Amino acid sequence: MYCLRAVIVTESARRRVLDSLEGARLVPLGQDLSLMPVAETRFDTGPLAECSEHGAVAYVEAEYFGGAGTQFAQVWEGGETVLGPLQVDEDEPDPADGSPISQALRRLGALKGDHFDEFDAVGLGRHRDTDDWLSA
Fold first, then answer.
1. pLDDT tens digits, one per residue of 29-75
2. CB of 101 within 8 A of CB of 131?
3. Torsion from C-alpha of 116, 61, 77, 125, nearest 10 degrees
4. DSSP secondary-structure letter at 124?
5. What is the DSSP string of 55-99?
6. Which of 24, 55, 89, 116 is the S-S candidate for 13 at Cβ 3.0 to 4.6 Å?
């Protein structure tokens, strides 16, 4: 099983997220990105547009069990939505340009390199559950 709900920010948006979102705690990822685990089932993404004034900010969700699952992603930059919202539901193939999360990471500047995709390149497989990121 894999379950993730998180805000992912560029280095330039890091300070704004920490100042704007009460209780924000960021975990460094690769490629100058940081992840803020989201414990709430219903997270208000409204403030993310404002947080993106200084750099790109993404909200992502993924839930998989036995290889089947769903993904969601949306990216804000300069106060505006610049990608999404994108969603792939269970049993739907990923779009030709990659999964919603990989597309969001690419928009934030992540490079796939020799990895399977951007998701793998920044280390999102490091933990299997959002709660594990909270204790990281």
1. 989 999 999 988 788 888 999 999 989 999 999 999 887 889 999 99
2. no
3. -30
4. G
5. S-EEEEEEEEETTEEEEEEEEEETTEEEEEEEEE-TTPPPPTT--
6. 55
